[in-house]
Structures are given as C-alpha cells and as structure tokens.
Design a protein that fits this description.
Chain B: Heterodimer of an alpha and a beta chain. Chain B: It comes from Roseibium litorale. The structure holds 2 protein chains of 2 kinds. Chain A folds into 3 domains: 3-94, OB fold (Dihydrolipoamide Acetyltransferase, E2P); 121-125 and 328-456, Rossmann fold, CATH 3.40.50; 134-317, Thiamin diphosphate (ThDP)-binding fold, Pyr/PP domains (Rossmann fold), CATH 3.40.50.970. Helices cover 29% and strands 23% of the residues of chain A. Chain A has 14 helices and 23 strands. Chain A has helices at 84-92, 139-153, 177-181, 193-205, 224-232, 234-237, 267-271, 284-296, 307-310, 346-359, 377-387, 402-414, 436-442, 446-456, and strands at 3-6, 16-22, 29-30, 35-40, 45-49, 54-59, 65-69, 73-78, 121-122, 134-138, 157-161, 186-188, 209-213, 247-251, 277-279, 301-305, 313-317, 330-334, 338-342, 364-368, 371-373, 390-393, 423-425. In chain A, helix 3 (177-181) links the parallel strand 11 (157-161) and strand 12. Chain B is of the alpha/beta class. Chain B has a domain at 19-24 and 34-43 and 74-96 and 142-321: 3-Layer(aba) Sandwich (Rossmann fold). Chain B is 41% helix and 10% strand. Chain B has 11 helices and 8 strands. Classes of the chains: A alpha/beta, B alpha/beta. The A-B interface holds A 158, 184, 189-190, 192, 194-208, 225-226, 229-230, 234-243, 274-275, 277, 298-299 and B 90, 92, 121-128, 131-135, 140-145, 148, 150-156, 158-159, 162-163, 181-182, 185-186, 188-189, 192, 346-350.
C-alpha cells in the first residue's frame, strides 16, 4: 500500500512552510534516513528525512511552492512491487486525518439574531504622521529591524543571549545581526541565564546598553534576581547615581504544545516592580516602535514578546525612525458599547471578538495597552467613561494579574461610570497542560470574550 | 591550610609567588614596603578600623538600623588592593562594603551618613549600609544578594573589554558566596571571553555562622577556577604586603588581556557576621589569637617602629588624626537631616 509523505511540522508553532527543494526525483529509491527534501519556514531551512523505504512514486507539491500546510500530502512512496497507478490512486485520496488541534473554538454560545453592523472602526495611530506610507512586516522582522537600527545609531548597544549570533537566533529574531555588527556586539552566551543577565546588568551600570535576549522568559526565572534586585533597584539604592540602561527581551507566554514549564506569561511578575518598565507588544508596529524606544530608554525594560506572533504580518509605517512612546496605550478600534482592554497575544482574541460583536450589533472599543508598566490607565478610563463596561483579555493566570490591577484602578477612578461588573478573560488557573484539547481549554478564546461582553452588556 | 597545592593551569603565577594563609608563619619572603608604603597602609587601614568601630558604636546607640556588617580584621585586603590598582579600575563587593568605599576614597561623611540614613549619605539615605555606589570613584556597590556582585563585576570587566580602556574590575566576595552557582557561570564567561576581572575571595572563614569546612566540599578556594583554567593563588590577607604583591600580579595579568584571575585572601573578621550576630560558633580564643598574632595593622605598626620609620608619638599623631576624621564623620552623620519626604518617590526611573 502506498505511503503518504506529509508536510512535516518543524516547530511547535509552524502551520505552513515552503517546499524549497526536492532532493529525490520520482522513481528514485529511498531508504529510511535519506534526505528527500528541504523545507523553509520563516525561521529556518530544514531537511526532511524519509521515515520509510520505497520508491518515490509521485511528487505532489512542486519545489518552490509556498504556503504548504502542515500535514498536506507532498509525495507518495511506493512499496516494493507497487506501480505508478497505485501512486495516482493514493494521490487523490484525502490526507490522513490531521491532528484535531486546528479547529476553531465555537465563537459564542448563541447569537441567533443578526443585527445591523455597528460603528466599531479601526482607529488611526496618532503616533504615525498622516500620509505615512505603510508596508507589511512580520513581528519578527520588526524586532530585528528595531535592533539593527538602534545598533547602527549607537555603538554602546549590543545584543547577547543563547544562539543569538551564529545560529541567527533560536527564533531568528537576530537574523543577520552577526554579519552586520560582528561578534563583539552580537554575542552567543553559554546557557547560564543567571550569569549572563548579571553580566549584562554590570555592563549597563557602566553605561553600555545591552539587549539581553532570553530564549524564552520561562528561562529568565533563573535570572530574575538580577532583573529585579540588580537592575530595577540600583538607581534608587544609589540615590539616583547609577542606573541600568538594559533591555531584557524574548518570547513570553504560551507557544504551542510546549507544556507547563515553557508556557507562562510573566507580565504581572515584572509589572509588580518599581524601577522596571514592562512592554508587551502585539503588532509589528508595536514591536518595532517600542523596542527602539526600550533600547533608548535609560531604565531597565522588560520586553515581553510572543512566539506565535513572530510570524504574523501587520502593516507598519515605512519611516526612517519609527519610535513609539513607552507608557501610551493605543485605541485600536473605536466603539461605544463596551471597552475591551488587552495587550500582546490577548489582542488576537480581542480583535476577532470585536469583529464578531460588530456583526451582532455590539460596538466594542479596543484598547491595546502596549505598555504594562507604566500603565496608561487614563486611556482605559476615558474609554470606560464612554462605554460604561469593561472586559480585559489576557493569556496569563487570573490571580494577581494585570487584569486584576486594571479592574482595581477602574473601580477606584471610574466607579460611577460602570454599568456592569468588570469581567476578565484570562488563562485558566492551571499549569499549562500538554494535551491539545486541554491546552486549548486552558487558554482564552474568542467565544469567552464574546460571552463576557454579552454578560456585561446584559445581552446574553 | 592547603598551601602546598599548586597554582593552577600553566599561567605565569606559580607556587613561588604564593603566600600562605593567616596562621602560618612560614610564608615565603615578601617584598618589603618602603616607608611611604608602610605609613600609607597604616593610615588607610586605621581609618577603616576606627570608622568601623565608630559604626558599631552608633549601631549600639540605635542610630544605625537594619543590618550592619563590619570589616574589622580584614582591612589589609582592600588596602593592599587599593595600593595596586590604577585609576579607572573598578571595585564591586557584597554587603560588607564600608572598607571598600573608604579605600576607594569615598567621603567618610557620606558613608557614615548613609549608615544613619541621612540626606547627605552617598545614596541620599536610600541605600543603607549594604547599598552604596559611586560612578565617579568607580565603586559599583554594595550588593545585598550573596554572589550577585560576581556576575555584575564580570559585566564591569566585559565593559572594559568592550571599550578597550585597559581597566580591570575587582569583584570581591566571601567564602560563603564562593559556593553560589552564578560564581561559576561568571568564571566560565570571564575565561571564555578573556575578561579583565580579578575575583577576590575574602575568605574570613565563616559564611555567617557556618565555617568553610562545614559548607564547602573543597576548601582551597583559590582553586575554584581550576576547571575553567583560571589561575588562582592563596594570599595571606592579614599581611598588606602580601596582598599588594599578589594584587599587582593579578591586575597585570588581567590588564594584559590574559583573562580573569582569582585571589583567595585568607583573612578573618573579628566581629560577628553582622551587628546582631553573637558569634557563638567560634571560640573567644580563636578570635584573640588572630588579633594578637596576625592583626594587619599591628603588623605594620611593629615594622614601622622596628625600622625607626616613625616613633610611638608619630603613630599616635596619625591615630589622633584618623580619630578626628572619624569623629567628624560621626558628627555629620548624626546631625545631617533625614531625607526630605519627597525623596520617597524620586530615583525610581530616569
């Protein structure tokens, strides 16, 4: 029976890739372990090895094809004695059942009555001058460009971390930086987060401007003493004499199917600390404008990225020097019925929910916090005073979360404007499970956001 | 004492240059000091001694709060290193830091006023005994977390190399900190990248109340860099001449781009770990023996008198001068006002 060769997933978050090259031709004999093709993702080029023996009966996806979905049939392998007609038959059969993980969560429990679309419009970014041309950029490219631009601008800026140089970044965020800036300024470290974070802070105390990349913030728990005790507190303890102009950056929060120890969102941990600035970008524009600002900032900045967002594309202003202000939220969508406040990957659910809500006749205003500390509560309050209702959306645990803090401040400062209790949609209060179905349950989804909005608008 | 072991790993520093620990009088010959060096060391060590005695007194009067870790007994270590260093070389240490600041020429008034939490303190009263800094004098703290200064000090060395400025960082830490994991992470990076850092292990024999023997699987701390190929030597940290000689070797080694160097200064603290430590883990005899036989200041005093470089009256005059300087600092520290309440919310971010 012919064997299907499927497009492999090469990382936990890969959904599609380019079939760059076939290294075997139709009719070639293949043994297990032979490299049969090369596949490119946005992060890397990987070789695909044969798992079974046989003859390559038919190639279904030509080399050079982009956007090949994971688990799509790319070739047919014939067993001994089978002929090409078997390959043709196999090619037309549906691919093996894919993993069940991809189905979208039900959008909401009920929305039977279609309503007239309401005003909930994408808002302009006041930080971008009117008429600025836009271009498409992934978050990954935006982060890399931000670092490269700042390194060109200031010789005191350097980047260090695990695999940032020769490997070009574990997630390819530092791709090309070694070539341009050399090994003095793009530094591969040993796998010793505590040590190299401390080294970075020491260098920063002398006035250098390190960018310390953590392969993920989950590993930064090993280094958190230096982030907090050494970086955040020194300016105060020295009576203002000695600070640490340093950026700690890397992916934070859940990726996909990497389990409890690699899936935590640390925003509220760092946001708790006076002396730190904490940024959690969502879009490519957030990533670029805020990382450039973070590098220039004379204070220690914790910059919390997200692996799932790295490959996503957004419109970004095509400007020489696009810098966003730290501590300023952005109204991504204006609306009148409810305020949705989110940040980082939480914005993904939030923007989809706002779209669906518009179709149900509920006009949601979406505030993208961009910075967690200092918190732009004024922008949140202005929105809540307009809508009277607030739902916050984040992937982190609920207890002592950023949502908790926003809810506290809003009840304190806009109590009389609230027409409903503030609700929060968060990750569940459990260590992240591995099983696909449980992981999905542990994370927020669009349906939960819509349900929360219905609750606070009394339309459930 | 493990003074018979070799110095590590094919470097310039060989056993011949290695002096023995305190309590062992058979150390190899040490370069004699000139009269000027002896008198300089005497005055500097005495300033630290008298300053710390005064700090202990003010603590007892309730004028200094919190934790207060005195340097009495260890003065030769920091003074010897100070005599070896060049302008621009940095120091960083843990919380037993008053002596380092005085050796780095920080104003005793500012140090004492920081201990009393006053606005004229080096950190405006916001840091306290364990947290003082001076970019101007290249003193990078004053750190309260055991071992943190080792990684930070490695970063100072990194910055020197990045800037190619010829400076060397001196990272001081104790025998207790020498078991911290980040010390070895730092050793690895410093040797890998050949960073100019002298790691100065001030082995005063007790990490709080636990002796080196009870906390450390190997007690020759000078060899803690051996698996990274970092040379190390054990130095009689009670003899300022031995400290200076070893420090000059170490600083030269680092300054010429060979990488980091470890000096284990075998020393002793006469007081408890902090003011609140009754030090019941060691005998009075042990302390008394160190004070009478190995005191770093008395050693210099005896040599100066023996050489007729000063009379008893000359030394008394120095002592009087130093006491006056310390009294002035104490006076300032008691009369300087507390920080303005507006300082509560300043210096958090730039």
């Amino acid at each position: 029976m012919p064997i299907d060769i499927l497009m492999p997933a090469l990382s936990p978050t890969m959904e599609e890739g380019k079939l760059a090259k076939w290294l075997k031709a139709e009719g070639d004999t293949v043994t297990a372990g032979d490299v049969i093709a090369e596949i490119e993702t946005d992060k890397a080029t990987m070789e695909v090895e044969a798992v079974d023996e046989g003859v390559l009966g038919k190639i279904l996806v030509a080399e050079g094809t982009e956007g090949v979905k994971v688990n799509e049939k790319i070739a047919i392998l014939l067993a001994e004695g089978e002929d090409a007609s078997a390959a043709d038959a196999a090619a037309s059969a549906p691919a093996a059942a894919p993993a069940p993980a991809k189905e979208e969560a039900p959008a909401s429990s009920a929305a039977p009555v279609p309503a007239a679309p309401v005003a909930s419009e994408p808002a302009e970014d006041p930080e971008i001058p009117a008429g600025t041309p836009m271009k498409s950029s992934t978050v990954r490219e935006a982060l890399r460009d931000a670092m490269a631009e700042e390194m060109r601008r200031d010789g005191d800026v350097f980047v260090m971390g695990e695999e940032v140089a020769e490997y070009q970044g574990a997630y390819k965020i530092t791709q090309g930086l070694l070539d341009e800036f050399g090994a003095k300024r793009v530094i591969d470290t040993p796998i010793t987060e505590h040590g190299f974070a401390g080294l970075g802070v020491g260098a920063a105390m002398t006035g250098l401007k390190p960018i310390v990349e953590f392969m993920t913030f989950n590993f930064a728990m090993q280094a958190i003493d230096h982030i907090i005790n050494s970086a955040a507190k020194t300016l105060y303890m020295s009576g203002g004499q000695m600070g640490a102009p340093i950026v700690f950056r890397g992916p934070n929060g859940a990726a996909a199917r990497v389990g409890a120890q690699h899936s935590q969102d640390y925003a509220s941990w760092y946001a708790h600390i006076p002396g730190l600035k904490v940024i959690q970008p969502w879009s490519a524009a957030d990533a670029k404008g805020l990382l450039k600002a973070a590098i220039r900032d004379p204070n220690p900045v914790v910059f919390l990225e997200n692996e799932i967002l790295y490959g996503q594309s957004f419109e970004i202003p095509d400007m020489d020097d696009f810098v966003l202000p730290i501590g300023k939220a952005k109204v991504e969508r204006s609306g009148s019925d409810v305020t949705l406040v989110s940040w980082g990957i939480g914005m993904t659910y939030t923007m989809k929910a706002a779209d669906e809500l518009a179709g149900m006749g509920i006009s949601a205003e979406v505030v993208n916090l961009r910075t967690i500390r200092p918190l732009d509560i004024d922008t949140v309050l202005a929105s809540v005073r307009k809508t009277g209702r607030l739902v916050t959306i984040e992937e982190a645990y609920p207890m002592c979360s950023v949502s908790s803090e926003i809810a506290y401040q809003v009840q304190e400062k806009a109590f009389d404007y609230l027409d409903a209790p503030i609700l929060r949609v968060t990750g569940k209060d459990v260590p992240m499970p591995y099983a696909a179905n449980l992981e999905k349950l542990a994370l927020p989804n669009v349906g939960e956001v819509i349900d929360a909005v219905k609750a606070v608008t009394y339309t459930a | 004492m493990a003074a018979t072991k070799r110095t590590s790993s094919g470097t310039g520093a060989k056993a011949a240059s290695r002096s023995r620990g305190a309590g062992d009088n058979s150390a190899p010959a040490i370069a004699e000091f000139s009269k000027e060096q002896e008198l300089h060391a005497y005055r500097e060590m005495l300033l630290i001694r008298r300053f710390e005695e005064k700090a202990g007194q003010l603590y007892g009067m309730g004028l200094i709060g919190g934790f207060c870790h005195l340097y009495i007994g260890q003065e030769a270590v920091v003074v010897g290193m100070q005599m070896a260093k060049k302008d621009g070389d940095q120091m960083i240490t843990g919380y037993r830091d008053h002596g380092h600041m005085l050796a780095m020429d920080l104003d005793p008034n500012g140090v004492m006023a920081e201990l009393t939490g006053r606005r004229g303190g080096l950190s405006k009263g916001k840091g306290g005994s364990m947290h003082m800094f001076s970019k101007e004098k290249h003193f990078y703290g004053g750190h309260g977390i055991v071992g943190a200064q080792v990684a930070l000090g490695t970063g100072l060395g990194f910055a020197n190399k990045y800037r190619d400025n010829g400076n060397v960082a001196m990272a001081f830490f104790g025998d207790g900190a020498s078991n911290q994991g980040q010390v070895y992470e730092s050793f690895n990076m410093a040797q890998l990248w050949k960073l100019p850092v002298v790691y100065v292990i001030e082995n005063n024999k007790y990490g709080m109340g636990t002796s080196v023997e009870r906390s450390s699987a190997t007690t020759d701390l000078s060899q803690r860099g051996a698996s990274f190929g970092i040379p190390g030597e054990q130095v009689d940290g009670m003899d300022v001449r031995a400290v200076l000689a070893a420090s000059e070797r170490a600083l030269e080694y680092c300054r010429t781009g060979k990488g980091p160097y470890i000096l284990e200064m075998v020393t002793y603290r006469y007081r408890g770990h902090s003011m609140s430590d009754p030090a019941k883990y060691r005998s009075k005899d042990e302390v008394q023996k160190m004070r009478t036989e190995h005191d770093p200041i008395e050693q210099v005093r005896k040599r100066v008198l023996d050489a007729n470089w000063a009379t008893e009256d000359d030394l008394k005059a120095i002592d009087k001068d130093v006491r006056a300087r310390v009294a002035e600092a104490a006076e300032f520290a008691q009369n300087d006002p507390e920080p303005d309440v507006s300082e509560l919310y300043t210096d958090i971010l730039l």
